[in-house]
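User: Fold this, then the next.

Assistant: Folding the first:
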Amino acid sequence: MKVYTMKGYVPLFVVLFVAVLLSEVSSLMFHLQPTAQKCLREEIHKDVLVSGDYEITEVPGQTVDLAVVDSKGGFLWKKEHAEKGRFTFTTDEYEVYEICFTSKVPHGQRGFPQEVYLSTKHGVEAKSYEGLDEAAKLKPLEVELKRLEDLSEAIVKDFGFMRQREEEMRDTNESTNSRVLYFSIFSMLCLLGLATWQVLYLRQFFKSKKLIE
């Protein structure tokens, strides 16, 4: 099986190898201190499906609120008294998103740290293929081929995005180099002009003092 692109084709083993390198699945565990807030920040592309599974250890009387917010403070997903479950959202634009856990302890009660388990997936990894075989009447092998097709398209998009970022960085470097060159030339001209003015001024000063002819 080969995955075709605009400039040719890529062998399947290359796609799978790159898929492992570009795997967008992350899991972590941390301790949330009482009456504290902990936010996990991540930069995500536009129109990317994101899903997350979370589980928070229970402490009598304590609650944890979970919210997913963008850089403008808008809520993409929110749940109070979160304990265990899953959240999903699709990014509207390319920016930084935050997953925030907020611990709440009743007044007068002693708080205890809580363990938070979080696993997030992006893109194809977050897409669910369960029930696709029944809905589209596809065989298990066809469902797997569909998943590989979506994965290859995601990889091609990632390559295109990286190429675009590389072009933007190259243009920025070239623009910066040009500005530095022009600034250096301007500085040299200013120094030459200042040196010339100093020589002429000193010559005129010494002539006025009749130190030179």
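Now the next one, as you asked:
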Amino acid sequence: MKFTVNRFEFIKSLTDVQRAISTKTTIPILTGLKLKLEARGLTLTGSNADISIETFIPAEDDNFQLEVQEPGQIVLTARIFSEIIKKLPEDKLTLEVTNNYQTEITSGSASFNIKGLDAENYPHLPEITTSNTLDLESDILKQIISQTVIAVSTQESRPILTGVHLTIENGELVAVATDSHRLSKRKITMLDAADSSYDVIIPGKSLSELSKMINEDASKVKVRITENQVLFEFNNTTFYSRLLEGNYPDTDRLIPKDSATAIDFSADEFLSSIERASLLSHAGQNNVVKLELDTGKQEATIYSNSPEIGNVEEKLKFQKLIGENIEISFNPDYMKDALRSFGQSTITVSFNAPLRPFTLVPSEDQDHFIQLITPVRTY
């Protein structure tokens, strides 16, 4: 096996595939990166228990300057191999596998010899047999992921909540995540999926890694779903993720249908105020801020008090305030995550009672995106 390739372009592909490679695995060969060289190009593969990533470098792609001299395959320890490639001195590198899987990597005056493993022992990637494909705009998919993964649970005690619940029915895609303290729900209309029906739970960690890999070059992402795997295809990359097993909780019943108090904020201005208030809440033992709404005086005030440090009080700017007076306390980190997901838009925050969950929605489009946060009891 022997090839020459542009080092900088190769590093980009290598970095993507490494997202699937873990140093903590019960299968030693999975700490390695599989390279398979054919006349048509080079395939890089990485895998762990949850995700597998395969990316293809075509021989005809001028950016990579790939020269295939002798086809073959090898598995190399990913961490060491990656560090070597990044430190090589020249723009191009040559990799050659000789007897007993000895692998020589050369670039300019530098030459490394490392031992590889037989690629025949590398586990096969999952086979996706379904031919049904969903097409998603890459920017929409990235947006759905960023707006929902913030609410997935990091606690393994309830594994089902570490995923995003994805359903497709009657031409509508709905993504929901909750960690039981907060919830995020996003809907989009998919006219080309009118005949499709899916109900799956994708690990939040898988979606986070996928989102980092989707760049401006990918206009569309093809999605294929089977019983226990989901496959995303874009550019020359294939991303596999296992699905979580079990029934996701019925989250619709958690979302209030009406409200007693509602206020409209600019999301980014409200975020700045929460960030200031959380400076003291983080310094203290109780990470809590309090929001007080007085509809009679038309005032909105945010407070944070840390007995060890001090306190902060700020009058908030808002567009509209209606309903009953209310005082409510919450975790500012949850609020900051929620507000960031709205970008520059104006949002409506709706409340029912001091200890009842409250919701945040875009003021202009209240049906397609909602964030819910559970208050904190302070007495």
